[in-house]
Amino acid sequence: MASYDLLGNIAIVKFKPGTIQNKKKRFAQQLLRQNTLVTTVLEKTSRFKGRLRTLKTRWLAGERTTEAVYRENNCTFLFDVDTCYFSPRLASERKEIAQMVRKGESVLVMCGGVAPFAIVIAKNSNVERAASIELGRECSKYALENVKRNKLKDKVEILQGDVRKKVPYLKERFDRIVMARPNLKDDFLDVAFKKIKKEGIIHYYGFYNEELIKNLRELIERRAREAKKKIRIIKIKKAGDIGVRQYRYRADIKVMN
Prior knowledge:
Number of domains: 2
Largest sheet: 7 strands, mixed
Shape: globular
CATH architecture of the largest domain: 3-Layer(aba) Sandwich
Strand content: 35-45%
Mean pLDDT: 94
CATH class of the largest domain: Alpha Beta
Number of strands: 13
Helix content: 25-40%
Low-confidence stretches: none
Strand order of the largest sheet: 9-8-7-10-11-13-12
CATH superfamily of the largest domain: Vaccinia Virus protein VP39
Number of helices: 7
Radius of gyration: 19 Å
């Protein structure tokens, strides 16, 4: 009848079309009884939309709030589920990238949201500095709060603004860039190639049907030629499904020059 995501104290439920309201309410009450950590149950009433990937929810049961407190990888995050995109399904991705970071690296996270990538990296590696840039003002507000909550003000910097407009004006280059971008037309690879150090690593996320995965490799190689960068694609891996035979892929790219 339904599927749901758990974001700390909030469960967001997606019902099959035609489900009557009484059944929705009963399902929500059952969720509250079965999971003592859940204090609010919301119904997902729209898909993620727009450049900021926001959604709409409707209250079903429990506390009337859209503010979640979510924990993963020894970190705590506060955010509003209606105004800030957050995927708990990327928890293993965030941990995996944190484990790749070497001592003393500087890391840039593009489209950083409420800063889960930057904070998980800072909390679980010997990174020197992690900068997270996000377009949404609401998400950036929560990102600043999350840096404080996780006691990382000396390691994580939050930048609010458009990646394409703001990143080119950053003075430094980075050892590693995480491109945690949503499913947008703009790939931002030209921006990343300008800000990566020699021998640096770019983690690029793209969204493709599994039959068209070669298009991801072709895109990266084309953007590298345009930027006059010599690269080696270390690997391309699935990083979660987004639909029938539709996947989020992560490409790990080493930039040689």
